[in-house]
Amino acid sequence: FGNTCYCNSVLQALYFCRPFREKVLAYKVQPRKKESLLTCLSDLFNSIATQKKKVGVIPPKKFISRLRKENELFDNYMQQDAHEFLNYLLNTIADLLQEERKQEKQNGKLQNGSIESEEGDKPDLTWVHEIFQGTLTNETRCLNCEAVR
């Protein structure tokens, strides 16, 4: 597949993040949606989860192909940055879930797995936000007086 170790590293880490894996696997059982990075990821995770062998290799061909179609940055055989890929993947999944939720609201349906937005102009938070969003705090402490800035 070319230099895809950046992708494999991120996919392995996300697969072993239980809350994320469970949400992605649950997405597979929903009524079939148009192919997207999330449906391909769900298919890949399902292949891993239902694998009978204890060890082995599952090539992420469909996922890599979809990734290359959706983003020209990854449409080559060059090495990429795993951090950039992780951010892209999580943002893409969150955007997709928000768009689906918006369409469901317009159709009069609501789906589990998202948090209601308190303000109408803010986008709805998704399970991606629930799992990965946080607040980064930084403090500087003086070594002499221990004052915090």
From TrEMBL:
Gene3D superfamilies given for it?
A: Cysteine proteinases
Could you list this entry's UniProt keywords, alphabetically sorted.
Answer: Hydrolase
GO MF: cysteine-type deubiquitinase activity
UniProt KW Hydrolase keyword: yes
Q: Name one GO biological process term.
A: protein deubiquitination
- USP domain boundaries: 1-149
Q: Which GO terms describe its cellular component?
A: cytosol; nucleus
Classification via Pfam families: UCH
Entry keyword Chloroplast: no
PANTHER family attached to this UniProt entry = UBIQUITIN CARBOXYL-TERMINAL HYDROLASE, UBIQUITIN SPECIFIC PEPTIDASE 12-LIKE
Annotated protein name in UniProt: UBP12 hydrolase
Q: Which organism is it from?
A: Promerops cafer (Cape sugarbird)
